[in-house]
């Protein structure tokens, strides 16, 4: 179960708060906060769950990109050019 799903589960009234979660205060520009609120309402999720889901996706993508660059470097590339990164990304996309 992904983090966002666990947060959504614990936000149900019958659930007891789990001590394995960290409370975090984030300051957002008004426009971004409005978009977050609208997206959460549209998806039927709490703002906290949607924020956790977005952060988890961002961190996974960031890690995936870093690992991709390491693979290219270990494959014998002393210097990895930006085009190599773009080609790696294209190769990872799901194709129909």
Feature tags:
96 residues, mainly alpha, 4 helices, elongated
How is the secondary structure organized here?
Layout: H1 3-10, H2 30-43, H3 47-74, H4 82-92
Helix pairs in contact: 1-3, 2-3, 3-4
Quick description:
64% of the residues lie in helices and 0% in strands. The protein has 96 residues and is mainly α. 5% of the residues are buried.
Would you give an account of this structure?
With 96 residues, this protein is an all-alpha fold. It has one domain (3-92). It is 64% helix and 0% strand. The model is unreliable at 12-16 (pLDDT under 50).
How many domains make up the 3D coordinates?
1
Order of helices and strands: HHHH
Helix/strand/pairing category: mainly alpha
E-strand count: 0
- Helical percentage: 55-70%
Mean pLDDT: 77
Low-pLDDT residue spans: 12-16
Percent strand equals: under 5%
Specify Rg, calculated over alpha carbons.
18 Å
Distance between the termini: 27 Å
What's the helix count? 4
> Which overall shape is indicated by the principal axes computed on the Cα atoms?
elongated
Instruction: State the major sheet.
Output: none
